[in-house]
Amino acid sequence: DGQIPYLAMDYAPYGTIRQCVPPGERLPLATVVEYTNQLASALQYAHDQKVIHRDIKPENILLGPNNELLLTDFGIAVVVQGTSTHVTQETAGTIAYIAPEQLQSHARPASDQYSLGVMVYEWLTGKRPFTGAFAELALKHIKTPPPPLHETLPDIPAEVEQVVLTALAKDPKQRFDSIQAFATALERAVKTAQALANQETILSFQPLQQSATTASPTTSVPPLPSQVDPVSSSSSSGFQAPQPTELATALTMLDMPHDRELLPEEAARVTMLTTPQALPRLPVTPQPLLAQP
């Protein structure tokens, strides 16, 4: 009869992130950045409306039909009144992901950032930063620094680790100014680390290329003669017969064919020009060298 109220919601066919990413499973860095950007965008919108979620955890995030993340369960969310930056309420949330100040009933937007930081830590390492019973977990959130990520992931870029640990700072004032700033810093750190890794990869190839160039066989090519040196051409041992290449060069310069028998006058002229006294003064045109087969 049109009098029954109802609520229409998006359909999430793949369940929660907890179901898709069970405890102990790690996500690729690129996926972590993508998920963080999506959640930070949703939470930033909520924070801009003065709403603090207070229960960010994998069980409250659904996976939509296009693998997009859907932030759900605002059941314990609170609204910040006026210009205040935090709200005093009863302690609520999930102990494994709760922020230190939220345990002390002083939730603020940075509390959601801390909870998202715990999720990012878990996605990267496969485990949460703190474990234990309720009272032990509460004390660790308040007093104990999170274990460095590089103890589990030795290859994690230092820039990425620093961003995650900043979001997990005990003092909310030492975290990022906003949850969107956290996501932006994480993405920038990943891109910077990837750019440095690519640069190191390129540099590591250069010595190999130099070694390959040095080790490659080279052909020794004798210098081409441009002009016969009169001093070095004369010899104290007497007359040296001109080499065939010198004779061919001489015939070419005299415009005489060397593919037929010379006429007597041509032979006499060649003999005169190829004597030990005349040959050193004879300019030689360099001939192209042909590679041996």
Task: Record the strand order, biggest sheet.
Answer: 1-4
As a percent range, the share of helical residues equals 40-55%
Distance between the termini: 99 Å
Determine the mean pLDDT: 78
- Oligomeric state: single chain
Give the percentage of residues in beta strands: under 5%
Q: Could you list the spans in which at least 5 consecutive residues all have pLDDT below 50?
A: 211-242, 279-285, 287-293
Provide a count of the helices.
Answer: 10
Shape: elongated
**How can the largest sheet be summarized?**
2 strands, antiparallel
Determine the structural class based on helices, strands and strand pairing: mainly alpha
- Record field, number of beta strands: 6
Radius of gyration, Cα only, in angstroms?
42 Å
Question: Secondary-structure element sequence?
Answer: HHEEEEEHEHHHHHHH
Write up this protein.
Helix content is 43%, strand content 5%. It has helices at 17-20, 29-48, 100-103, 109-125, 134-143, 158-167, 179-215, 230-233, 244-253, 264-273, and strands at 51-52, 61-63, 69-71, 78-79, 87-88, 106-107. Helix 2 packs antiparallel against helix 7.
Features:
mainly alpha; two-stranded antiparallel ribbon; disordered C terminus; 293 residues
